[in-house]
Structures are given as C-alpha cells and as structure tokens.
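Appendix B. Raw example, untouched.
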Amino acid sequence: MDKVIVIGAGLAGSEAVWQLARRGIAVELREMKPGKMTPAHHTEHFGELVCSNSLRSDQLENAVGLLKEELRRCGSLIMACADAHRVEAGGALAVDRHAFAAAVTEKIRSHPGITVVEGEVTQIPPEGEVIVATGPLTSEALSEEIAKLFPGSEYLNFFDAAAPLVAFDSIDMDRAWFASRYDRGTPDYINCPLTQEEYDAFWTELTQAQEAEVHGFEDAGVFEGCMPVEVMARRGHDTLCYGPLKPVGLRDPKTGKEPFAVVQLRKDNAQGTIYNMVGFQTHLRFPEQKRVFSMIPALEHAEYLRYGVMHRNTFLDSPRLLDRYYRVRGQERIVFAGQITGVEGYVESAASGCLAAIELARRLEGRAPADFPRETAMGALALYISDPSVVNFQPMNINFGLIPQLGYRVKGKRNKNAEISKRALAALDGLELE
C-alpha cells in the first residue's frame, strides 16, 4: 500500500495523520512551515493555535464539550495534547499554546509510521490517496490548483479576526477582579468593569476608530462567529452589552452589583503572564487599538504583547463538492479536512480530520464505512457540510441544532442537552472504530 499524503499540519492535518498512523497506515505529512509562513502563524510547530488558546466549553451540556469527548474516545492526538497542557479557564478547556503545539509536533515527528516532508505544496498529487488540510489560509498557488478541481464552482471567502494579548502585570487589578461567570468553576477570568458613562465614551470611540485596510472587507460579509468588535459595536449602542461585554453573572466585589458592562480577559499561557481580550477580535489600526482599548479603566496602562489582526479565510462550497466522508464527489481519492471544508473552530477542525482519516483507513483496509450517525456531533458536522439542500452555505460551529432532538421531553435545557450527549456517546461507542 502506498503512503497516504496529508497536506498541512494544522489541527485537522495533524489529527488525520495521527489517526492513519495509529492504524498502521504509512503517512507522508507535507507542511510548508517553516520555509514559508502564513500571515497568522509565527512558529514552526504543527497544530499552532492562532486566534485564541481556548477550545471552548468542556462540559457535556455544551455541544463543543460533547465533540471533545467524542474525539477523546476516538484516540485523538489533539485532545490528548490539549488535556496534557491545559490552563485553568473556568468551565472551558484552554491550553498553553506553545507547549500544546510543541507536544503535537513531537508526537508526530517521533512516530515511525509518519514521514514529514517540509516545503510548500503547489499542486495536488495526481495519483494516490491524499488529504488536503491546508486551512483557511491556503497558499495562493495551491488555492489555484484546488479551484481547478471544481470547474464552474468558486471558493467562498470570509474574514477572520484575532484578539489582542496583554501582559498580566500591566493590568490594573485595583480596577478589576478574578471570577468566572456565576462563580462556576475556578475564578480564572479577569473582569474589567465599565460604568454607563465609561461605556458610552468607549462605544463612541470604538465605532469611529480607524480600521486597517482590508481589501474587500464589508460588514455584511463578516462571519457572525468571529465578528470584529468594532463591527459589532456599529450594529447598535447596546449590542456589546449582550455580547462580549455582557455583565450577567458577574458581580463586582467592591459594589456587590453587576456593572453596566464587563470586559473579560482569559489566561493565554500556563504561567498566567499573558491574557487574551475575550471577544475582542479586531482589525483596527494598531495605534487605534491602544487608544480605544485603553479607555477600559483596568487597561488604561496595558502593555499589548500582540495587537489584533485581520486576515482572509477561504472555504469550499462543500455541500455541492464533498460527501459525508469529506471526499470530493467523483474524485474520492481526494479528501479535504479542516476549516477549508466550512467547519468552524479548532475542535471542529480536528474532528473533521479525525473522521476523514478514520473513514479513509477503513476504505484502504477494505472495510465498510463507519458512517458516524447524525446523533453524534462528529457525524452531524460531516452531514451538515455535505448536505446539498443547504443554501447560502456558511461555516458552522458544532451546535445542538445540528443534532436530532430526543423525541421526548426533558425538563430544563441543560438536562436536555445532557441527554442528547448521553445518546451521542452511546451511539459512538456502538461503532467499531479501531
């Protein structure tokens, strides 16, 4: 059996390589870093996290918590490394980004069944099995080659934004406090309150601040799940108060009351020296970020270790191009995985690589497909991106709306979601995945 070629060592590619290798299938991983970098990446490591260090909720009452547990039960490399290098973040799973990516890289490079070939890939191999997991920042040369696979079809584009990072010792903790919303989990978020007057001034400057030039950027084209904070602010005076600055469940210990608005900061490394401004993805000019964000009282003298950046993301019109195994319809030797397929989020990307590799391995072994059912989070995502009835296709995070309802009443949303997760894990355990 010839080696399977996997192009791209992000979360999807790294997971796909691991799932194939652990089943005894020889794999060749091709990665252009460090010889060529994307605008969003800064290290030579595989599985590098860009926008955030959070893999979101780790609770089974949340759909992404279910997806993570499904990955764990599939022997996921990404989840094993994330669990080994987690940092406290309340009920969420956040990681030390550098340690996490270094661990993913070490595991892959040390596996005897995996060969790593460095250098940019500019065309899809003309023969053999291949998984394309080049991510939303696929190089221009390879992007043009991918487009040739689909005559008459076009890529879809959206813009993604990364939030600023600030140094912990520059945060004025006399005007902030540690707590998680509703005091759930450990108090790992830094909460920076604003009075109504402070918020009014902040909102006015934010809506009028100068943006960096991004060719073709329009408010209407921004993907809702990663909207720049200034775009959100322009949608209405109180929009932020119902979004990233919502004060619900956060009582200021100095007043005993909920502030008018709260900016939350989340730990970005294990040492707690770097904090991420939650929900503050932005493409404002760097001087404008410092000027406007310094109007948040606790961040008046903040040191920015990285300013927010904006970059273009590209994804396929997957419902018309891919099947439930992430294979190209009519050219099934070619498989796509990751955000290029329209799954949105770190965990979702890893899940697509996991499912695609498991199904490819079964096909190479002459076995029937596993056919992850829609009742599972992994199956629901795969069936969403491959559903030809979907119109105006947009990237999608996992959510319980993609999974069939129970068919019977359960009192309370959290209880209902827990039952859906229980059913999903039972369905997953019924599959023969090894």
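End of appendix B.
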